[in-house]
Amino acid sequence: MERTEHRGPTGSLPFRRRLLAVCTATVLALPGLAALAPTARAADADLVRNGGFETGLDGWTCTAGAVVKSPVRSGGSALQATPAGSDNAQCSQTVTVKSDSSYTLAGYVRGSYVYLGASGTGTTDVSTWTQSAPDWQRLTTTFRTGPATTRVTIYTHGWYGTGAYYADDLSLVGPAGDAGQPPAAPTGLTAGTVSSSTVALSWSPVTGATGYALYRDGARVQTATGTSATVGGLTPSTAYAFQVAATNDAGESAKSATVTATTSAGSGPSTGLPPHALVGYLHASFANGSGYTRVADVPDSWDVIDLAFGEPTSTTSGDIRFNRCPVTECPTVESDADFKAAIRAKQAAGKKVLISIGGQNGQVQLTTAAARDTFVSSVSKIIDTYGLDGLDVDFEGHSLSLDASDTNFRNPTTPVIVNLISALKTLKAKYGSRFVLTMAPETFFVQLGYQYYGTGKWGGQDPRAGAYLPVIHALRDDLTLLHVQDYNSGPVMGLDNQYHSMGGADFHIAMTDMLLTGFPVAGDTGNVFPPLRPDQVAIGMPASVNAGNGYVSPAEADKALDCLTKRTNCGSYATHGTWPGLRGLMTWSVNWDRFAGWEFQRNFDGYFG
To answer: Domain GH18: where (predicted)?
Structure first.
């Protein structure tokens, strides 16, 4: 049937259009009403802070999120978050809103099972989601706040056990709430106890402040919830200028007056090491493609020689044995007498020779007090038999992991962690202040702790994540060197909230900066792993392409050293300090470096002269 329209004198389309125009003009001509409608619209604003993730995760709290440069929907950054186990990788932000008002929440997402929602609305909490978004897809939902609601939490998350999702350009449009005024600038900033690498600061409380931001030489370096904090990662005998600002939901105050402090010249207990040391592992109990190298044939450039490896009779026995390479496997192996004589000669030349415990195949789990005591006695026997200077802890694989209830690196409760700490303290006390204690963990056990610690708040994470942190922290006053293995590693998030991968200077710079700056464990700013002294840190690198994944050329090694010790040649990663006292380099291994024509050693000698 053909459609017809009524065209009577008052119902015709031209008449209705004219009537609408007249009515609209009449309404807008009434006093006060012409300005009312546009004013109401102007009150609406986008209330999300950093909705495009252009300033990292600023404003966001994420359980497993990072900022990436690709893919992005607009600008130069977007959020990437990866669910794992029982963690749905939620990123959230709490926003100040107006009560009894309407809001539109929107954002662009991609990936499988991506959710966008709001909670704490005071009415009905809302969410929207997509099961599959191979390219950027806009999600949007609306809600109305309750009569007493002033704060709403917006969030995005994925789904348990699925792949990574991405989010960009998130917005919450509606009337702005009254966030009040930023607090006043703090007063009374004072420098307290000063060490070679730290300065303690305190200041007067500020009314209305919910937190404080600390600035070092004009750069924001950390936050605090109270009225005191210790700034670490500093260089000995160096003057620094500090300021503090107060923060609340409305923003940040002006900075306080400046206070200066100069770090002391101390560099920790004397161990007889040179200012810049070269550390290498010597294959003493096995042979591989690199060939056997006698102790006497190790060049004088090597300041610390780690004999690899002492291994347990069984995983949980604690009984460590050091078996020298047999003649059938190493035809050029020296006799025990020559081996011991070569060690004494190295020591007479100022070198340190240690027994390294563990390695790839030497899983050590001190699950009981008996295993702990056996560990102490058996390691002591090796040290005494060969007259060694100390111990290197090279626990890998499944040697260290955290119980689900063990969530505080400062007060560990897991038996294998507690017993190892006790054993190492006992050995240190037995041999005295010149006992050399070093550690060579993998990045998974240390720097990964910035994102993950143990099984996590909801379980499901790898219990080994960050498991070395309580050991390092408990022994930090006794620790001679920490040289994390910056090789055979997956991508690791740095303090810039970007993932860094092996193979270039950037990885070594980012991983080392974390050790010298300190970092929140599992993203908890109230639970910060403090920085180590620069003289306690060396960078672990493979000696050659044959030695392990993550080899870098001498030029890239020099870039890393330039950036960390001089703050030059840094590339894209901005360090949080300059550490000319960085101790040096560690490599796997002396044998592989010899196989490669001593390239690693020669470059170290050339750099530090």
So the answer is: 276-609
- Please give the average per-residue pLDDT across 200-227, as a whole number: 88
Same domain for 414 and 545? yes
**What is the band of 189 on the pLDDT scale with cuts at 50, 70, 90?**
very high
Active site residues: 396
Domain of 66, CATH number, reads: 2.60.120.260
Domain span at 396: 277-608
Helix (H, G, I), strand (E, B) or coil at 168: strand
> Which of 139, 152, 143 shows the shortest CA–CA distance to 109?
139
Whether 523 contacts 550, CB under 8 Å: no
Residue 442: pLDDT over 50: yes
Q: CA–CA separation, 59 vs 318, rounded Å?
A: 47
Supply the DSSP symbol for 340.
H
- Cβ-contact 221, 209 below 8 angstroms: no
pLDDT tens-place string over residues 2-29: 333 333 333 333 333 333 333 333 333 3
Are 248 and 281 contained in the same domain?
A: no
Quick one: pLDDT at residue 510? 97
SS3 content of the chain, % helix, strand, coil (to 5): 20, 30, 50
Q: 1 CB contacts (<8 Å, ≥6 apart)? A: none
Q: Is residue 32, in this structure, part of any structural domain at all?
A: no
Say if residues 495 and 450 touch (Cβ distance below 8 Å).
Answer: yes
pLDDT of 452 reads 94
CATH number at residue 243: 2.60.40.10
